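Notes, Module 5: Reading structure tokens.

Key idea: the token line is not a picture. It is a compressed description, and you learn to read it the same way you learned to read a sequence, by spotting repeated patterns. We will look at two proteins. The first is printed below with its tokens.
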Amino acid sequence: MTWDDLDAHLDTLPGTVSAYAGRLDAPPTWTRHPDATHYAASTMKVAVLLALHRAAEAGALDLDAPVEVRNEFDSALPGAPRFACARHYDNDAAVWERLGGGASLRWLAERMIVRSSNLATNLCLAHVGLPAVARAWALAGARHSVTGRGIEDFAAREAGITNLVTAADLAALLGGLAAGAARPGPLASPAGCAAMRDVLLAQEFRDDLAAGLPDGVPIALKNGWVRGVRHGAGVVYPPDAPPYVLAVCATTDLADGGTGGDGPDDACRLLADVSARVWAARHDLRPAG
């Protein structure tokens, strides 16, 4: 396989497929529309995770202190009524079982990632704030990604306030966390980056990028999906090659909007195929040219 072959294959598919693949701390080996913006779906939750850990390291909040689990949130649109999440649209019954009770922000952040809980995400956002998430993106070097609202804030969405990502920005964020776990960097302390990486390694939805890897190969992963969108971004840790970051964003009719629990759709299979091809080239992931 050549990268030109992969691009030619992706050219035949409906919609826009963006990608970034390369080793950590090095220019990418392969990109495809890396700066094209896509609706973020749940990939924006990684920036929320980083904002939480940064706030905790600054002493602004305690990740282990209990907070109220409620389902009522301020809209990002000034003057709009408060909004709530729909339980049937969430992927994590465990958070809903605590409604009216309490949970730590650390536990909520974990559920936000490993089960992609929307309720947990909005609770985390309520405590850390959208400006802190914007700062997290900026520190990662993101150039186009925006987290403008919480999940299911329909008033804000209808007013044009949205969440956007690019493949390059997701690669910068995930790659920055992985690199920051090994040595001090701009995002958080090595211990904080390692803790976030470990949460991403525990991802339970594995129908896309992870499905293209051999069994047992670790990937620190966050994916996201709604109808018409399937994204995956992660850092892969081969046993026989240096770690590499892979981000694939697909805005395509191949995505039916189902969760990992519903089984893979054609968009999942697309991301798995790209992941398998990059895995096969893992020893050659060096800067192009």
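Here is the second protein, with the sequence above and the tokens below, as before.
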Amino acid sequence: MLEKLGLTLKNAMNKIANAVFVDKKLIEEIIKQLQRSLIEADVDMVIIKEISEKIRKKATDNIKSLEKKEQIIDILYKELVEILGKDYYELDIDKEKKPFKIMMLGLYGAGKTTSSAKIGFYYSKRGLKVALIGLDVHRPAAPEQLEQMGKKGNLTVFVDKEEKNPIKIYEKFKDKLSKFDLVIVDTAGRDVLNNDLISEIKKVHDEIKPDKIILVIPGDIGKAAKRQAEGFSQACKINGVILTRLDGTAKGGGALVSCSMTKSPVIFIGTGEKINEIESYDPESFVSRLLGMGDLHSLLEKAKMAIEEKDQKKMQDRLEAGKFTLNDLYDQIKAMQSMGPLDKISELIPGLSGLMQKKDLGNMVNVQEAKMKRWKYAIDSMTLNERENPETLNSSRIGRISKGCNVPGSEIRELIKQHKVMKEMIIQQASSMKGMQNLDPEKLARGDLQGMKRKDLMKLAKMMKHSKIMK
């Protein structure tokens, strides 16, 4: 996502960090680098000039104290956040209202149907009962596409493949929709925003009375997003924007800036075709990722999308009880794989994201990802008893598993060893946490250790040491 812009910004950060002096010459070099990357990202030239002048003025005004390099990095960070949206917007969904309705708008090819399913999946992972309804009666195969996407997210989908009146389709399913917490309405599009589309949007809007309206815009149209956002806003009140196709375009920066200029907040960004490849858009986290500082907000969201809520609780209960079998390790590998490639996940982790530019570390991550896939194959080839009791895996059984999954015996032994290490650490952590349950949390929070027994102090020290190792 905007890799070239991100790479340029990381190079600028490195230049600041490695500079002996931060002077006017260095500031001008950084501004030129930033200008080139923003032009390539299709950001409007007026905006580029404005941000350049702001950075130049703020950096120059503080030139005497610029031996603290963090100041210029902070200026760069804040100005990028300003032009890329400034604030974090979240859809305010009233969980008491049933059904809460979101109406989706957009032109052909924007990714409206896919985004409808993605949003449905996103909120279903947050405990809402979600339904999708297809009111696109013009585009061939639109109902089938919505059904297929809904199936991938395990969502209920209502479509009528014969009816050509969107109002009648909505009326047909209206009673059934009332049983859901959230209803996503996929509407029709056109090649351009014309009078026919505006008329249909208004009719559908008046019938379903949506609580929120979201506009879907492809990120690869760059600054042309401004015209689309303004055009749809005139037809009806837009509550937010989803930018799609940011995974394969250099023009996403222009689209993000354009939406910010039209006061149409970007709420979600699409990062791929899969049902879980959608993120809530937080300008601060986004810029942090571009600068190589990681993005924990998106990392936590990916984790929520990867693991069912009931499975999260089950996994937590088992870990707290100190239970960790190869089945548990298998579930964790599966969850990590569904979050996306390991090198992309690493970019979201503060500290590790900047290091990913180094070839050796990048190669190590790729090697580990391939190894985890083979570990998964190996666990697939084990019996249920072997997964639950890996200590029973002797040379004979390892040989059988190796032949069954075509994974070298040495890697299977490495898997068993890794599981043993992880299990011991989990048992230690569970034991430490259990021992701390009777301690006063308020005293611990303010560092008051007086009155604690020696054995509890030992447990606290052990737990803190373990936490440092985990970090």
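Summary for the second protein:
- The first helix runs from residue 3 to 18.
- Residues 441-449, 463-471 have pLDDT under 50 and may be disordered.
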